[in-house]
Amino acid sequence: MPISDSAALEKLTLEVRSPDGAQEMVRVTELPFLIGRGGETGNHLKLSDARISRRCCAIVSDENDWYIEDRGHHRGLFLNGERVQRAPLHSGDVITFGLDDSYEIALRSAADEASLQGLLTSIGSLPGAIPGDTTGGLQKLNLLLQATSLLHSELPLDSVLGTMLDHAIAITGADRGLLFEADSSGALNARLGRGKGGATLPTSRLTPSQTALRQAVEQKSPVVTEDLNRAEAALQMAQSIVAQSLRAVVAIPLYANAHSGSANNWRGQLLGVVYLDSRRPAAFSKLDREILDALAAEAASILDHARLVEHERQRQRMEQELNIARDIQQALIPHGFRNFDYFAVSGIHTPCHSVGGDYFDVFPLDENRTAILVADVSGKGIGAALLTTMLQGALSGMTIGTDPVRVISHMNRFLCEHSEVGRYATMFFGILDSTGKLVYINAGHPSPLVLRGAEATELTNEGSFPVGLIPEANYVAETAVLEHSDTLILFSDGVTEAMNPAEEMYGTARLREALAGQGEAPLEQLQKTVLESIEKFTNGANQADDITLLIVRYRAAAHAVSTTS
Asked: What is the pLDDT of residues 323-379, one digit of tens each?
């Protein structure tokens, strides 16, 4: 890219795409042109990303060329997906910073304007293309400019792409045009079909040349045949071409720009194919192909950008739905427990994602019996949250006198019969009465601890299968008796399986150590002690499971006083 004078420098422009999808054009006005985070180091282009170094890179020049130089970006500087220290720049090059969700900078230069001027000169030199001519080349150029203008409008995507096909048909004089969009596997699906005069064609009834489409994708370059009678045998004998008496075909693959610092992503993924055909030979002249190439490049750009916008909209919709799900789930989890005559209770649930698969609850069955439970659904996210909500509804609907074994067995059969749900749940379900008797079922859940005095011990070594895993699972209720001031510590495996940066698990032994000697501590203080112990152990490491803690302290003396009164 020669830089012979200052005028050329003034036409060097950077197209800057920020992480949120916004774009701006920045003119390079002096060299070296410094790029980095913030303006403290004199950067001309300031990037608002804390992961990008303050002294990141610079555009420099020698007598003939522009270059990009890495000035110390710790993640590396990438040009067209390849890591570089110093490399020459060309129009259309893309600069990235080794981050999938950060800035991208594309180079635009005087060469871009020169190519359009050259096209204008070619069209203007056509026989009959005189000033004021409204047909021929100048009309085609006008159609091209209209199309490219529309491609950068805010109209709905299908409307823009449909108009792009209409202009392509008008430019080339084709009989019909189709836009194929590639799915995640690379398979082409017809998205739009248009005929002459802007007529919409049903894509299900169109039979384009699959041979031309396949060749365009395999060769990664346009397939343009002016006269199929002179084309290679594969195209001449293609069934769709013979059946429809086609004489001219064009298929141009559309590719995305690179969107990350990985070299494997350069050239971008296949977005789709623009396809045109005609029953007239020589329907696509060489000049038409040049114009169509320019139009296809614009179509690829807008389709690529539209995909990014649609992905962002989907992300925002999903985030909104997750926020709603989180609010609903948090509303269903108890907050500010009511006072009970014969026990005190405290609990907390911290999901590792927006919504979690853990659930706990405490609800009275009658004046002297209260249900206490902790459940952990397999998996995370929306699916787990939906099942926890269903479990809550089923359990909170228990009627007075209902046998817990029958309830758990029924839930197990229901989930097993609906195996398409693909989820199961571990659960500890107990009924505590005013005498201190605890009747419970442990369905594959970690055993609660009983803090008596200064020592914490496991409530049980027995357990049955999780709910929804084995249809024939046999659930048996066990019984324990709590003494005055005994504290029951229920938790999910997110507590004992919390990991530190060395990927060591917190474990039951550390939980017992944290509880030791805390038999008389207020429940809120006891809960805080456990959480601080976990936090200290994990030391900031990201966790893959929810943390749920439910603490129940039996108060026999308080109940006796209440009964006597």
From this structure: 666 666 666 666 667 778 899 999 988 876 655 667 788 888 888 889 898 888 776
Alpha carbon 472 to chain centroid distance?
39
Task: Report pLDDT digits (tens) over 521-563.
Answer: 999 999 999 999 999 999 888 777 888 899 999 998 555 544 4
* pTM of the model as a whole: 0.48
Residues counted in the chain: 565
In 79-231, which residue ranges form alpha helices assigned H by DSSP? 110-124, 136-151, 157-172, 210-219
On whether the CB atoms of residues 16 and 103 are closer than 8 A, the answer is yes
More confident residue, 470 or 245: 470
Name 76's Cβ contacts closer than 8 Å, sequence gap at least 6: 70, 83, 97, 98, 261
- 79 DSSP β-pair partners: 82, 95
Report the distance separating Cα 554 and Cα 488, nearest Å: 8
Q: How many C-beta neighbours within 10 Å does residue 286 have? A: 9
Q: Are 41 and 55 in contact (CB under 8 A)?
A: yes
Pick the closest to residue 180 from 151, 214, 148, 146 (CA basis).
Answer: 214
Domains and CATH numbers, the chain: 6-108 (2.60.200.20), 120-313 (3.30.450.40), 333-564 (3.60.40.10)
Element spanning 377, H or E: strand 369-377
